[in-house]
């Protein structure tokens, strides 16, 4: 007869989550090390480790170093117990990656979006993810879920309320994708996803106050304070691309005039490049690589406009780190100096001294990896108790 009460059951579940968490973060560990690290007694650790091995979430590997006596068996997190899908739904593309449970990419698919309507984008998205899932290795838990970072304002029910650059309003993205794929789906704004990607897997691993700037067709920010994403009361924070930097400036699809992204985004840059007869960002990067003075001048100009907004961010948030991500990372060689010069000219000396400006170390993959992280953490939250 099972006499375990609800309380005991909960305590066990919590303890098991603690053991799994320790193995995930600090493995390989022996049972004795796990006991020291978690404060749980050796018998409890042994029982819980046995269950985790049975559930295929941990495995035993080789023998560790002995501190005198028998060499211990080491426990390692089984990162291939399942796989997650991370999706970056941009204005012109859908990029999806398949990762293991530690966020390592095992496969990748990218499709162009030739139109903007939501039905079409959903079809392309579903096809991209299905092609990716078909490449997933066999695993005990299979595909644990998908996360999507989308270039728009998302509410807590996974509805894209407004995406000015995609021209979407009230698209129930989470429900639609969940229905199409039959797996749990988490949705967030792509700048928030990018911030998480850089914090967990990239340039922000060591920092706790980070502003991640997604500079693509538009500009969005993911704001991390004390290792937590600051989402605002409605979850809509970070729309920094729509802050005004010119009172009577260029019109923006959001309805305002003089928004920062009209001067400092990839789209702003491509508008400026039209007289050169260059239509694609790749073409402009290529021209700059070959030393075209016009192309380099345009990057320089956009770098200066980026610097203006970044100086405002540095003064407002006093971050340790500002990470520039998305497509504009590829322009680093030609915009870095302009950004740094303007930021040091326009920000307050105390703030400037502490703030480092870096380019995304995950390159253009910050948002997909952050999106995959949503799926991975949702899996662990559902299976166990998160701490
Ligand atoms: Zn705007």
Provide a quick synopsis of the model.
This protein is α/β, with parallel strands linked by helices.
What is the CATH homology-level superfamily of the largest domain?
ATPase, nucleotide binding domain
Bound molecules: zinc ion
SSE pattern, N- to C-terminal? HEHHEEEEEHEEEEHEHEEEHHHHEHHEH
The geometry reads as: globular
Strand content: 15-25%
Strand arrangement across the biggest beta sheet: 6-5-4-7-11
CATH topology of the largest domain: Nucleotidyltransferase, domain 5
Helix content: 40-55%
The second-level CATH architecture of the largest domain is: 2-Layer Sandwich
Determine and state the CATH class of the largest domain: Alpha Beta
Question: How many H/I helices?
Answer: 13
Alpha carbon gyration radius: 23 Å
Organism: Paenibacillus flagellatus
Family: Belongs to the ROK (NagC/XylR) family.
Protein name: ROK family protein
GO biological process, one term: D-xylose metabolic process
Task: Outline the structure in words.
This protein has 3 domains: 72 residues, Winged helix-like DNA-binding domain superfamily/Winged helix DNA-binding domain (Arc Repressor Mutant, subunit A), CATH 1.10.10.10; 129 residues, ATPase, nucleotide binding domain (Nucleotidyltransferase, domain 5); 158 residues, Nucleotidyltransferase, domain 5 (2-Layer Sandwich), CATH 3.30.420.40. The chain is of the alpha/beta class. The longest helix has 25 residues. The mean pLDDT is 92. The protein contains 13 helices and 16 strands. Strand 12 and strand 13 form a beta hairpin. The chain binds zinc ion. It comes from Paenibacillus flagellatus. Transcriptional repressor of xylose-utilizing enzymes.
């Amino acid at each position: 007869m099972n006499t375990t009460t609800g309380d005991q059951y909960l305590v066990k579940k919590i303890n098991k989550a603690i053991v799994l968490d320790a193995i995930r973060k600090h493995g390989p560990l022996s049972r004795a090390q796990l006991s020291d690290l978690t404060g749980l007694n050796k018998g409890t650790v042994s029982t819980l480790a046995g269950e985790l091995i049975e559930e295929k979430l941990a495995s035993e590997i080789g023998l560790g170093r002995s501190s005198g006596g028998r060499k211990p068996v080491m426990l390692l997190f089984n990162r291939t117990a399942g796989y997650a899908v991370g999706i970056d739904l941009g204005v012109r593309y859908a990029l999806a990656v398949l990762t293991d449970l530690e966020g390592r990419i095992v496969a990748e698919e990218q499709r162009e979006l030739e139109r903007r309507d939501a039905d079409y984008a959903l079809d392309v998205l579903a096809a991209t993810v299905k092609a990716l899932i078909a490449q997933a290795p066999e695993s005990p838990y299979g595909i644990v879920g998908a996360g999507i970072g989308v270039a728009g304002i998302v509410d807590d029910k996974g509805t894209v309320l407004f995406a000015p650059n995609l021209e979407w309003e009230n698209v129930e993205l989470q429900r639609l994708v969940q229905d199409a794929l039959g797996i749990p789906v988490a949705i967030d704004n792509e700048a928030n996803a990018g911030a998480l990607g850089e914090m967990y897997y990239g340039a922000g691993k060591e920092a706790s106050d980070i502003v991640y700037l997604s500079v693509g067709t538009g500009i969005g920010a993911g704001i991390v304070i004390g290792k937590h994403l600051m989402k605002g009361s409605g979850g809509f924070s970070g729309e920094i691309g729509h802050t005004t930097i010119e009172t009577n400036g260029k019109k923006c699809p959001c309805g305002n005039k003089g928004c920062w992204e009209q001067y400092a985004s990839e789209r702003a840059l491509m508008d400026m490049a039209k007289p050169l007869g260059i239509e694609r960002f790749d073409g402009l990067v290529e021209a700059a690589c070959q030393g075209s003075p016009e192309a380099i001048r345009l990057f320089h100009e956009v770098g200066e406009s980026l610097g203006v907004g970044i100086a405002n961010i540095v003064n407002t948030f006093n971050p340790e780190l500002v990470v520039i991500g998305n497509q504009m990372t590829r322009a680093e060689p030609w915009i870095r100096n302009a950004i740094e010069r303007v930021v040091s000219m326009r920000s307050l000396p105390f703030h400037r001294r502490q703030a480092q400006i870096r380019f995304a170390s995950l390159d253009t993959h910050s948002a997909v990896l952050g999106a995959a992280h949503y799926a991975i953490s949702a899996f662990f939250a559902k299976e166990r108790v998160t701490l």
